[in-house]
Amino acid sequence: MRRQAKTASLGVEAVPRDRAVVGAPSSLAARSESDIVNRAMRPREWAMLITLSALWGGSFFFNALAVKDLPPFTIVFLRAGLAAIILNAALPLARLRLPRNARIWGAFFGMGFLNNVVPFTLFVWGQTHIASGLASILNATTPLFAVVVAHVFTRDEKLTGSRFLGVLLGLAGVTLMLGPKALAGAGLPGLAADTLAELACLCAAFSYACAGVYGRRFTRLGVAPLATATGQVTASAIILAPIAFLADRPWTLPTPGLAALGAVLGLAVFSTALGYILYFRLLATAGATNLLLVTFLLPVSTLVLGTLVLGERIVASELLGMACIGLGLIAIDGRWRKTLRSRMSRRHA
Question: Is the separation of the CB atoms in 51 and 127 below 8 Å?
Fold first, then answer.
């Protein structure tokens, strides 16, 4: 009891595993969190991180299409609601079921609020006033917030000089890549609205950072990543339904175009349902700080897709930005330190 009271915090609490979740990752739950977060990511985890960046990178594009025909709360509710339907249908196929434990459902609602309701709404509303590129830059501040939040509320993801340097390098890289183009419209008339939109995106990034730390508890609860993704998206849809109906009165809205409907479907299927399956798997194996490196990769994935699909050309500032992002990822990953230390040890042996 004393240990539980000592460790209770944002994402750090001693709780029993939920035995009702079929297929829960017992091997992950048994592993100490310090073993998970204080090691370099494996190639498989890097592959999942890059895939997740592509899935989430598309969300800014989908949002830009959807806001032309639909109001923010309706977009966010449809995104969460459709994803919840998809994930609930996928659970039986994976021989999983949602837990009935009230404590776990409380965690689902907390995670859904921090990871979906708040940031989805703020980013969608923000993109009604600012460009998606600028929103992407502001989203890249998430690891900065995550480093601080994890340092305060966890015992095993403390701030180090290397991690902080890596975050700064990554943020500089994102700004080099998108800054001139995205910031070009920041001085347009309506500065007050633009400023509020930018602050909204920063608050969304902070909420994502809190969610990354908060979500660590699901490994200790013994909830499988797919069940966690399903539970938190379902809780988000429950929260958003009355808000969207009261605020937007969607039955009074004109019929949206095919582009907006396709964008909402893309948000639900790719950016949410599939994205969160990868998200919670990475959170369980790589830790919150490593996972949130994905926000640095989002502009990279957007740039690559633009080059391959739209035939856009890569300029020197974008290549320099990607180099900074690469250095930042290397610094935060920490593998270089271990390699250098190992070589130094062998040299002095």
Answer: no
